[in-house]
Amino acid sequence: MQTAIGVDLGGSHVTAAVISEEGTIHQQHEEDLEDLHFDSVIAALDTTIGLALKDAGDAVGIGIGSPGNIDAATGAVLYSPNFGWENAPLGDTLRKKFGVPVYVANDARCATLGEYTFGTGKATKDFVLLTLGTGIGGGIVAGGDLLLGNKWGAGEIGHHQIRPNDGFICGCGKIGCFEAQASGTGLIRHAFAVSPSFPRSSLLDVSREKLSSKKIRRAAEAGDQHAAAAWKNFIGDLAIGLANIIAFVNPEMISLGGGVSSAGDFMLDAVRPTVDLLTTMVPRGTTKIVVASLGNDAGQVGAATMALRGGLAKSVAVAV
Ligand SMILES: [Zn+2]
After folding, report:
1. How many angstroms separate the alpha carbon of residue 157 from the centre of ligand 1?
2. Fewer C-beta neighbours within 10 Å, C or N terminus of the chain?
3. 316, part of any domain
4. Considering the domain boundaries, does residue 133 fall inside one?
5. What protein residues have CB closer than 5 angstroms to ion ligand 1?
6. Do the Cβ atoms of 92 and 75 come closer than 8 Å?
7. Distance (Å, rounded) from C-alpha 7 to C-alpha 107?
8. Which domain holds residue 47?
9. 71-125: per-residue pLDDT in tens?
10. What is the CATH number of the domain that holds 59?
């Protein structure tokens, strides 16, 4: 059975694992990132990937999921605000080090390939993954192939504006992006926005570190009125984004991952009727909305799958 090295490059640590062609994660190596300078990140990748390659013996290649706008043909990180990188030659540097094929792509696109191949999307041809976490990452599969766009930007679903006039400010600088309104961070912002209506509520009387979207969701489930009002607004904004996606690509399935999706049926039962109301020209009920099944592993499994397949999508020729 063939294996590849799947790498998750995050803002605080790097994880490299041996992953087999049926999507199973075997040995895994992790290293914290002291800082985000290109050379420091390369050093951490060198250590973790080196150990994983030794474990694997004969891996077919290395797949890396990284935040930012990535040229998936060359593996260059064109722009990554998280790392402060521009035109960073990640793929080329690692090819020289390891002498095996190296593939690099946006982490959310890798997660989409993972969930599509081994998770909820595996029986579909038209599929969308959204990860609702600190932000909203996404990816679109159309006709069995991942959409990459003219310059690798297809799937930046988190930055379509749904409330340009009265929304929260997004990390990208715009107002009311889907990500600002319907991510885990968005739920917390909704709780602050409605708090003047609940002067006796103690929901937000905790330190910022202890205030999580999970705490607010759980309080909403338990019947707390302040949390329920925030949850209602959050669900309303999530529904707008989902209905927009249905209007654009009418996928067979939209799969929701990330921390907020652990709400499961509490979220799905609330959001589905509103999505139906907002779905006008596309036949209602033709897009299933479900919770993703691979969880945090989707990105790493997808990165390895990219290496095992020789690229992120059939439509792109890759320099390895
Ligand atoms: Zn934005």
Report:
1. 9
2. N
3. no
4. yes
5. 159, 170, 172, 174, 177
6. yes
7. 10
8. 3-106+297-309
9. 999 999 999 988 999 999 999 999 999 999 999 999 999 999 999 999 999 999 9
10. 3.30.420.40
